[in-house]
Amino acid sequence: MKSLHSNPLKLMDQIINQIAANIHKFTFSDQAFTRCRKLNAIDLIKLILNIGAGSLNTELLKLES
């Protein structure tokens, strides 16, 4: 059986980048994600997808390292 994509993590990164490039289509406010924050749209999406059973503090510390 032929695989759909040779590298699924690379595909996921491409999809996340496309979403972040068009983030205005996924927000209610025009001002969302317009300022420079510690967590940009790409990092926030990756954090949500990779969040484990730990506390929020632990997960944010994992993100920084």
Number of helices: 3
Order of helices and strands: HHH
Oligomer state equals single chain
Shape: flat
Cα distance, first to last residue? Answer: 38 Å
* Mean pLDDT level: 81
- How big is the Rg? 14 Å
Low-confidence residue ranges: none
Beta strands, count? 0
Helical residues, percent: 40-55%
Q: Sheet with the most strands?
A: none
- Portion of residues in beta strands equals under 5%
Q: How would you classify the helix and strand content by structural class?
A: mainly alpha
Question: How would you sum up this structure, described in words?
Answer:
The chain is mostly helical. Helix content is 51%, strand content 0%. It is flat and about 40 Å long. It starts with 7 loop residues before the first helix and ends with a helix. The model has no long low-confidence stretch (mean pLDDT 81).
List the helices and strands and how they pair.
Layout (H helix, E strand, L loop, with lengths): L7 H14 L19 H10 L5 H9 L1
Helix pairs in contact: 1-2
What is this structure, in a nutshell?
The protein is mainly α and 65 residues long. It has three helices and no strands.
Any descriptors?
65 residues, mainly alpha
